Each structure stands twice: as C-alpha cells, then as structure tokens.
TrEMBL record:
Protein name as annotated: Carboxylic ester hydrolase
Domain of life: Bacteria
EC number: 3.1.1.-
Single annotated GO MF: hydrolase activity
One Pfam family this sequence matches: COesterase
Family statement: Belongs to the type-B carboxylesterase/lipase family.
Signal peptide positions on this chain: 1-19
PROSITE patterns: CARBOXYLESTERASE_B_1 (PS00122), CARBOXYLESTERASE_B_2 (PS00941)
Record domain Carboxylesterase type B: where: 24-496
Annotated source species: Pseudoduganella umbonata
Entry keyword set: Hydrolase, Signal
Length: 516
C-alpha cells in the first residue's frame, strides 16, 4: 500500500508539474505546433490560418487550413505577402515573399491561462502599408511587450495589392455572391475566425478580442466593423490614423471592375484564366508600371454590403468600444505647397487651387484655416489625406458606442546617426510607443522622455484591451468623447485632455465630401 501510495503521489506531482509548466506545444486547427519561450513570453510564429491562396485559389475567399502531420515548428515567421518595396521604414523579418503568406503570429505570457477559469484579453494587430505592403513580422508590431502586460497579442498577414483587392468582371461572374475584390479583408476575417476557435489554447479569451491597426490597418479595422462576416468576432476596436470613410473611400463594384479589367489588359492578360496562370512576379511587376492603379477596399455588395458611410450613419456597425485618433503631422505642409516654405501667399494659392471654383466654398476654407500658416497648411494637407476620414469614423461611432479620441503629438527624436528630431508626430510615428516597441527600432536615439510617452500610450492601449476603457491608475483621466468640455486626450510628454476646437474644420470637409 505504501508503495502504491507513493506511485500515486508521484503521478499526481508529475501531473501538477506539467500543468504548471508553460505550454510551448499546443493544438490548433490543422495540427500541433511548437513555439518557444523568449524572455518570459511564449512566442509562436508562422502559424497557418488558411490554405495557401495559390493556383485556383488565387482571388478566392480564404479556404480552411490544410492539416499537417506531427508537430509543426512555429519559431520562424511565415512568408510575407506579394508586394513592391514602397516604404523605406519597413523592416521585415520574414524569410521572403510569396502568395503562400496567410500566417499569423502569437505572443502570450509564459503562464497565460494556466490554472485560470477565464482567459486573458487578446489583441489582433493589422499592419499598415496602403493595402499594398506590410507584414506581421515588422518589429514595430512585435507582440511581446503587450504579452508582458497580460495580453495575448497577434499579428496577421493578409493579401495585398492586386492579389488582395483586384475586382474583375470574370471574378464577379464566377462568385456565388456575384462580388469580387476585398480578398485581403476576407483574410483578416478568416484570421479573426481562427482566433475565435483557437486562442483559448494560448490562454486567451475569445470573448475579449480587440482588433487594432494603423493607417491601412486602421482602414481595415473600420471595415471589419461593418462587415457581416466579422460580426461577433471581436469586442473592441482601436484605430490609428485612417478609416474607410476618408477621401479614398470604397468605390462601387462596377468602378472597381473597370479598373481591374483595364489593369489586366494593360498587363497583357485577356482572360481570368490567363490572370490565374500568370506568375506572381509578373502580376507584381505589372503593378509597378507607370499609370498602374492602386487597389483598395470595394463596396462589393458582399464583404462590404453597402457604402461604408451608409452603414455608419445608419448605426449598422459593430457597436463595440472604440479608441481612435491621429497624429499632429500626418502630412507635411509641403505636400500642398509644392514642397516650398509655407507663406500666406502660397497657402492662399493652394486654397484657390482646391476650392476656388465656388467663391462661397473658398471663403469658408479661408475662414476655417485662418490661423498660423505653417500649422494651417500642415492641417489642410493632413485633413485632405487621412485625418478627416478618421474624424468622421470617430464622430459617427461615438453616437452608437463608447468612444475615446486621441491626438498624438510627440515627434520622434534625433536619429542615432545625427539627423535632427522631427518637427511633429508624423504618420506612423506612434506605433512603437503604443506597442511598447521602442527598442525594436534601431534608427532613433530614444530618450527617457520617449520611454515615458511610450509607458503612457501603451498603458492606455493595454487598459482598453483589457477593460474596454483606457483609464487606469497612474494615467491622466481620459473622458468619453461625448462628454462636454475636455474630451480629447493629447498624448505627449505632458499628456492631458483638452476641448477640441476643430469641428468646423471637419464639417467643412463633410460638405465637400457630400458634393463629390
């Protein structure tokens, strides 16, 4: 009996030890994967969430992942999706690019979910890059710092450019939904569905998923919020600089089909059969030709079932808490001033060029941008590009669900090779701060002030991901946008809420958008 009791105790102790040990091998849809522990974080890279969209699956909705035998190693990033080298600030750790690119990455605390009845909150980050470039392997999106905040963090890949957003009459004809385009959005939705089914294996709570993204990633978040196929797949949303309600918008399917057919013809492909048989590199190079179109989100009647503005104006979007905003210098003044110094004369000439056809419109533009010319030119350039659309999204959603708006104004510091600090918070400058990834960017000489700003912004993001509210101990109070008075959070070395004075500016752009 004593020997038997000792055996039982040993078995029980072994079971407890295994239960307490961080699991680096987990079972997911498709089979078992093995990651590794890195600095107290379990990292799983290159996990397939759908079948490779190659051959007959090019320009098809993502298909179920193909099962594998044995234990698949998940320690290296998967391929990035096909793309041209467009932006010099993008750093990829993926082994290469391929159409076989539908992979995601997971970072979880080493003890995530162990011995707990309820899983941890989840962050799914969607990269930016104009829907034409980007990858989940970029260091600025690394999820380890968020995992150390008690969050299961993911980055997901999605098809880009013509591979992800080509609409074409033959594609529409073969579709059971009579729609085409938006394959990249469907990839994102498939990744969210994968998270719903599999994230508990990593210690995450499928009911506490936050989707987030910057630039094209923010466009994507605003699109996911109105996509019927994505309803119920997330509980919160974060948008950084951009929405589908901007000037680019989501053109109707007929317009996108004409664009796609013209692209195919110019590239020398007469039929869909020829397009599908073409080498991926040939399609990629066709996008590099002068005059080639850019491909984006389409109102196809299926993935985006109606114009996005209608969905938000009618309250059809997912009514989840939203944290969103933009940066102080999304676009530089020179973008509308022929890259010359801002002067009153040059700014007036720009206003005349944009709004001079209608004297009343021009007069209103002069009135709403009647302040320091350098600031006004910067704001007009930013508003016309990406800020107005972000504001419109925030403004409409605040009528339906809790919404917090930020204004990020911390410029990046000087570079390690001596280039001076920026004069404003440029487009994408906030990502490393928000994700706690300053050390992953080796270009800049980060200071103690930068690290303090990062702690503040990451703190707001982490609180929101965990609780659906950015407020928490040690942070300046951030009121809901619908509260009167100081309701917008300025994030900088000295952060604090202020009362926005920009509504007249954006309502001016509202009226211009309605005339288009």
């Amino acid at each position: 009996m004593k020997q038997a009791s000792a055996g039982i105790l040993l078995a029980a102790a072994t079971t407890l030890a295994h239960a307490a040990a961080p699991a680096t091998t987990v079972k997911v849809e498709g089979g078992r994967i093995e990651g590794r522990i890195e600095d107290g974080v379990r990292a799983f890279r290159g996990i397939p969430f759908a079948a490779p969209p190659v051959g007959a699956l090019r320009w098809q909705a993502p298909q179920p992942v193909r099962p594998w035998q044995g234990v698949r190693q998940a320690v290296e990033f998967g391929n990035r999706c096909m793309q041209l080298p467009l932006y010099s600030d993008m750093v990829f750790r993926s082994p290469g690019q391929s159409e076989d690119c539908l992979y995601l990455n997971v970072w979880a605390p080493a003890n995530a979910g162990l011995g707990k009845k309820k899983g941890l909150p989840v962050l799914v980050y969607i990269y930016g890059g104009g829907l034409a470039t980007g990858d989940g392997s970029e260091p600025r999106y690394e999820g380890a710092a968020m995992a150390k905040q008690g969050i299961v963090a993911l980055t997901v890949n999605y098809r880009l450019g013509a591979f992800g957003f080509l609409a074409h009459p033959e594609l529409t004809a073969e579709s059971t939904h009579k729609a085409s385009g938006n394959y990249g959005l469907m990839d994102q939705a498939a990744a969210l569905a994968w998270v719903k089914k599999n994230i508990a294996a990593f210690g995450g709570d499928p009911q506490q998923v936050t989707i987030a993204g910057e630039s094209a990633g923010s466009y994507s978040v605003s699109a996911q919020m109105i996509m019927p196929m994505s309803q119920g797949l997330f509980a919160r949303a974060i948008g950084e600089s951009g929405s589908v309600l901007g000037r680019r918008g989501a053109p109707p399917l007929a317009d996108a089909e004409k664009q796609g057919a013209a692209f195919a013809q110019a590239a020398g492909f007469a039929t869909l059969k020829e397009l599908r048989a073409a080498p991926a590199e040939a399609l990629l190079q066709a996008q590099a030709r002068p005059g080639a179109p850019s491909f984006g989100i389409v109102t196809d009647g299926h993935v985006i079932d109606r114009p996005p503005l209608d969905s938000y104006a009618q309250g059809r979007q997912a009514k989840v808490p939203l944290l969103a905003g933009w940066n102080s210098q999304e676009m530089h003044a020179g973008a509308i001033l022929d890259n010359q110094e801002p002067t009153p004369e040059r700014f007036q000439a720009a206003l005349q060029r944009f709004y001079g056809a209608d004297p009343a419109v021009l007069a209103e533009a002069v009135r709403v941008y009647d302040y320091d010319v350098a600031d006004a030119a910067r704001d007009l350039a930013s508003d016309r590009w990406i800020v107005y659309g972000t504001w419109k999204w925030i403004d409409l959603h605040a009528k339906a669900a809790p919404t917090w708006r930020y204004y990020y104004s911390r410029p990046r510091p000087a570079t390690v090779d001596g280039r001076p600090a920026a004069t404003g918070a440029t487009h994408s400058a906030e990502i490393e701060y928000a994700m706690g990834n300053l050390d992953g960017n080796k270009v800049y000489a980060w200071t103690d002030e930068d690290r303090a700003v990062s702690r503040t912004m990451q703190g707001y993001f982490a609180n929101f991901i965990k609780h659906g509210d950015p407020n928490g101990a040690g942070l300046p109070a951030w009121p809901l946008l619908t509260q009167p008075g100081a309701s917008v959070m300025r994030i900088d070395v000295e952060s604090g809420a202020y009362e926005p004075q920009d509504r007249a500016r954006f309502e001016f752009h509202d009226r211009q958008a309605a005339r288009q």
